[in-house]
């Protein structure tokens, strides 16, 4: 049985010592927002956040599922032009998903590994598209 890391399982604050760590057990429920979303607090940094905050999808209108499917297809080696045709996104849009995903690499990797059964090697290949992977030489 696979388990998907979701908001409330880890701290989304990049400055926090427990940032992105689903094993840390530092997140507690902290009431609800005015519009009824679950709110959480991190015991390590005391920051509060709601269900959407801290996910790469916080400000995007595109369905999370569509974005993740694009990333999963890319990771499986499907060409961007093919994904663009089948999903109806511009190639630039797909690359922007990828660039944004790279900023939330740990979270995105957890989802791709667990929910889409993408391998670590495939994920590493995914990041090479956007140069996320640290390389020994610099331009
Ligand atoms: Zn924290």
Largest sheet: 3 strands, antiparallel
One letter per element, helices H and strands E, the order comes to EEEHHHHH
Total of helices:
5
Q: Specify the overall morphology.
A: elongated
Please state the CA-atom Rg, rounded to the nearest Å: 16 Å
- State the low-pLDDT regions, or none: 133-139
- Cα distance, first to last residue? 43 Å
Question: Structural class from helices and strands?
Answer: alpha+beta
What proportion of the residues form beta strands (DSSP E)?
A: 5-15%
Bound molecules: zinc ion
Could you tell me the mean pLDDT? 80
Task: Tell me roughly what share of residues is in helical segments.
Answer: 25-40%
Strands of the biggest beta sheet: in what spatial order?
Answer: 1-2-3
The figure for the number of domains is: 2
Quaternary state of the chains: single chain
Number of strands: 3
How would you describe this structure to a colleague?
- With 139 residues, the chain is of the alpha+beta class.
- It folds into 2 domains: 1-54; 64-128, no CATH class.
- It is 38% helix and 10% strand.
- The protein has 5 helices and 3 strands, in the order E-E-E-H-H-H-H-H.
- It has a 3-stranded antiparallel sheet, with no helix packed on it.
- Strand 1 (27-32) and strand 2 form a beta hairpin.
- The site of zinc ion has 8 residues, from loops.
Quick overview:
The protein is α+β, with helices and mostly antiparallel strands. It has helices at residues 64-75, 80-87, 91-103, 105-115, 120-128; strands at residues 27-32, 38-42, 48-50. Residues 133-139 have low confidence and may be disordered.
């Amino acid at each position: 049985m696979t388990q998907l890391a979701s908001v409330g399982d880890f701290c989304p604050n990049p400055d926090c010592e427990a940032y992105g760590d689903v094993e840390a057990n530092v997140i507690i429920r902290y009431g609800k927002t005015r519009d009824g979303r679950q709110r959480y607090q991190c015991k390590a940094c005391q920051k509060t956040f709601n269900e959407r905050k801290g996910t790469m999808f916080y400000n995007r209108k595109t369905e999370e599922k569509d974005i993740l499917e694009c990333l999963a297809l890319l990771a499986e080696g499907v060409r961007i032009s093919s994904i663009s045709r089948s999903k109806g996104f511009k190639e630039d849009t797909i690359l922007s998903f990828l660039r944004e995903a790279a900023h939330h690499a740990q979270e995105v990797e957890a989802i791709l590994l667990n929910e889409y059964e993408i391998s670590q090697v495939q994920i590493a290949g995914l990041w090479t598209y956007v140069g996320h992977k640290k390389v020994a030489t610099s331009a």
